[in-house]
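Structure tokens please, single chain.
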Amino acid sequence: MHWTILIRSHPDASGNPVLQGLRMAAAAVADEIVVSVFLAEGAASLALHSENPGARWRVHHDLIAEVQELGAEMHAIGLEWLHTTENRALIPGIKMASMKTLVRQMKLSDQVITL
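Here you go.
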């Protein structure tokens, strides 16, 4: 079984859908479900390494690291400009992806969840 979780919400959105999506990914991987997480739109900024993240961002980054350690693939969409900016790098283990990659992955998945 394979899940694709697309997280588009801003990290500060009410109800904290980003945290919900990351927790869902961790639980699915723990249940031996193969999971691909895509951070896009508002959530794409979470893929960027930050020297001094706030408390909420630190929680998100810690959970991203846990999800990666459990074996989920993490992708960021919409950061094509990143190579033109100095001192901005992706968190280790997060891969750049395109919409084409996302669509292909969604077609292969048994479950697609969008938050």
